[in-house]
Design a protein that fits this description.
The complex is a heterodimer of chains A (567) and B (49).
Chain A (H helix, E strand, L loop, with lengths): L14 E3 L6 E3 H32 L8 H31 L11 H23 L17 H30 L9 H31 L8 H12 L1 H22 L6 H14 L16 H36 L8 H4 L6 H24 L2 H4 L7 H30 L6 H27 L17 H34 L33 H26 L6
Antiparallel strand pairs in A: 1-2
Helix pairs in contact in A: 1-2, 1-3, 1-15, 2-3, 2-4, 2-7, 3-4, 4-5, 5-6, 5-7, 5-8, 7-9, 7-11, 7-13, 8-9, 9-11, 9-16, 11-13, 11-14, 11-16, 13-14, 13-15, 14-15
Chain B lengths: L8 H6 L2 H26 L7
The chains are: A mainly alpha (567), B mainly alpha (49).
């Protein structure tokens, strides 16, 4: 007889024991992790193909797409990459985080089906309308640009479907606690996923507030919403959805560094507090997009993008320290103690999950974080708004950070959930480096071209005749980076899909290890728990980061000062 | 007599996803959405010279 308890360890509860981790796995959660992850990767591939077309068009020498298709594909790319791929994969992460680490069963299979089908129908509807040429409005769909009603309806379905999935997550948390599936605090990966789910609620509520009246307007039932109001509320969806990514990505950092090396947060309370700072303040980053809008005042702009937002930036800097610090302590406790950076050379660089994690931390922190804070400063924003510097920033946060971290997670999720070993393991080891290298080149190309004034969302810059060879050179770097990143993405998608069909079945044995450094003789786990100098390598790296931050920030103030030379 | 160890109020907050959910919805709505919405509502249409 099936158990009514949501505790996975209760007799009669449908589940299995993982042959690698020894953890209980809820079969319902496993099914929906599979479905959401696979569909997410399909949308990633679609968005990636679109990205290749865009990169080869912005590379002015190639200029691949005609104008009409450039804006159509830009719309398609934005929605598939920033909304569909990310939301499907995040729902997979939420279902994992609320079941296996808590020893709990998914609250409701029916709700999970409703959520999944609504999201799928909505995403397919939106993509069909875009490719049909009835929604060339780009991702933001700023009014008075108007798309076919199916475009808005599709997004509403995706948003409501995701919200239902988030409800399933919270309901699982509730019944897990009620049925005693776990005691004490939830693990940090679940805590981070909870933060992501909370931000998702705010995000999706904004989506509903803005999309429903726009949909009724597109149907001719109501009058046009105010464009300024539309932008305010839309960015409560558009930017906040990326903050869901940040929380999910940081959770993945903690999870993968623990899986690969046994690393633990150096201070649980501080790490969780950093997630709380995200919950309370990171949503305010949406205000960056309105820094040149006349309808909202300077006080609103400066409060939301600077004072309050810096508390969320503090949270990112805390995570950016504690994740590598946890890794350093784990390595030193394994016996890799030589010098300040001796532990770095012994890290498992050929493990694709680990290399993806490290690249994600570095690309997100050094490139995405520094540029984000700088561009979010109201005064500096005036020389960067709507230039290619903006996509140069968010491609290293959302793609170089989040997508790369999610790819790293897939190198464990696919074997553990689909129970098949990866095919093409040599390609897998190279993939994060190809993708990370490509997206870094792409971002640098965008950022430097943007610094020369090249605008974003512009099909042709030559018509203006004001950009010299340097700008064209950086657009070439953008194009080559885009091709490289797409190659990395294609390898990833082919390896994942190929593994589902051709990977060796694991069944009850452990998955084939990607590689972890062995503990050396005489080492002892937990031996450095109270050693305040055990993270000296991470501290040195943090100082390098702060120096880069300061130099970039002041260079931008200098660039701003040059706009108004006083002689 | 067994006494349960006292839990710090901050730890209680960290262990309460429902309170975090309420705070996480209310604070951004007030700071970004409501405040911004009010500013837009109070903006008077400008007249052409």
């Amino acid at each position: 007889m099936a158990s009514s308890s949501h505790n996975l360890a209760a007799p009669g509860t449908p589940g299995r024991v993982c042959g690698t981790t020894g953890l209980h796995v809820c079969l319902d959660a496993q099914r929906f992790i599979k479905l959401n992850a696979v569909v997410g990767i399909v949308f990633l591939l679609l968005g990636g193909i679109a990205a290749l077309g865009l990169a080869l068009t912005r590379w002015q020498t190639v200029h691949l797409l005609p104008a009409e298709w450039f804006y159509r594909i830009l719309t398609f790319h934005g929605l598939n990459m920033l909304i569909f791929w990310i939301l499907f994969f995040e729902i997979a992460i939420l279902y994992f985080a609320c079941t296996t680490p808590l020893n709990a069963r998914l609250y409701s299979r029916k709700i999970a089906w409703v959520s999944f089908l609504m999201m799928l129908v909505g995403a397919v509807m939106t993509d069909t309308v875009i490719i049909g040429g009835k929604a060339d409005v780009m991702m933001t769909s700023y009014l008075p640009l108007l798309a076919h009603p199916g475009f808005y309806l599709g997004i509403i379905l995706v948003a409501v479907g995701t919200l239902i999935g988030v409800f399933n997550f919270f309901a699982t948390l509730y019944v897990a606690k009620r049925d005693g599936a776990y005691t004490g605090s939830v693990p940090i990966v679940t805590f981070g996923a909870t933060a992501a789910a909370i931000i998702a609620v705010v995000t999706l509520l904004h989506g509903a507030i803005v999309m429903i009246p726009t949909f009724t307007y597109s149907m001719g039932w109501t009058s046009q919403p105010d464009p300024e109001w539309y932008r305010l509320i839309w960015w409560g969806l558009g930017h906040q959805s990326q903050q869901v990514n940040v929380c999910a990505m940081v959770s993945v950092w903690y999870l993968l560094s623990h899986i690969v090396l046994g690393a633990r947060p150096i201070n649980e309370a501080v790490c969780r507090t950093a997630f709380v700072l995200y919950i309370l303040f990171i949503n305010l980053a949406s205000a960056h997009h309105l820094l040149v809008d006349p309808g909202v005042g300077a006080t609103w702009k400066i409060w939301n993008t600077s004072y309050a937002m810096y508390l969320a930036v503090l949270a990112s800097m805390i995570h950016g320290f504690t994740v590598p610090a946890g890794v350093e302590i784990a390595m030193r406790e394994k016996g890799y103690t030589s010098g300040i950076f001796g532990w770095v050379t012994a890290l498992p660089w050929r493990n694709p999950a680990f290399s993806a994690t490290v690249l994600s931390v570095v690309i997100f922190g050094f490139l995405g974080g520094i540029t984000g804070v700088t561009l979010g400063t109201q005064q500096i924003n005036i020389i960067a708004h709507n230039t290619l510097r903006i996509p140069g920033h968010f491609h290293v946060t959302v793609v170089g950070g989040t997508t790369l971290a999610f790819m790293g997670l897939a190198y464990y999720v696919v074997p553990l959930i689909f129970q098949r070993d990866f095919i093409g393991r040599g390609w897998a080891r190279a993939q994060p480096w190809i993708f990370g290298g490509g997206i870094t080149m792409l971002s640098l190309g965008m950022s430097f071209a943007g610094s020369m004034g090249v605008s974003r969302r512009s099909w042709d810059i030559d018509a203006q005749g004001v950009y010299g060879p340097a700008a064209h050179l950086w657009l070439g770097v953008l194009g080559i980076g885009g091709v490289l990143a797409f190659t990395g993405l294609l390898i990833f998608a082919l390896l994942c899909v190929g593994t589902l069909f051709f990977g060796a079945k694991i069944q009850d044995r452990a998955m084939t290890d990607w590689g972890t450094p062995p503990a050396l003789a005489g080492s002892q786990a937990g031996s450095l728990a109270h050693d305040h100098y055990a993270t000296k390598g991470t501290m040195a790296l943090s100082l390098v980061f702060l120096a880069c931050f300061a130099i970039y920030y002041f260079a931008n103030w200098k660039a701003l000062a040059d706009v108004w030379p006083v002689r | 007599m067994n006494q349960k160890p006292k839990t710090h109020p901050w730890q209680k907050l960290l262990d309460n996803p429902w309170l975090l959910l309420v705070l996480g919805v209310v604070i951004p709505f007030l700071s970004y959405t409501v405040w911004g919405w009010v500013e837009l509502a109070l903006t008077k249409p400008d007249l052409l010279p």
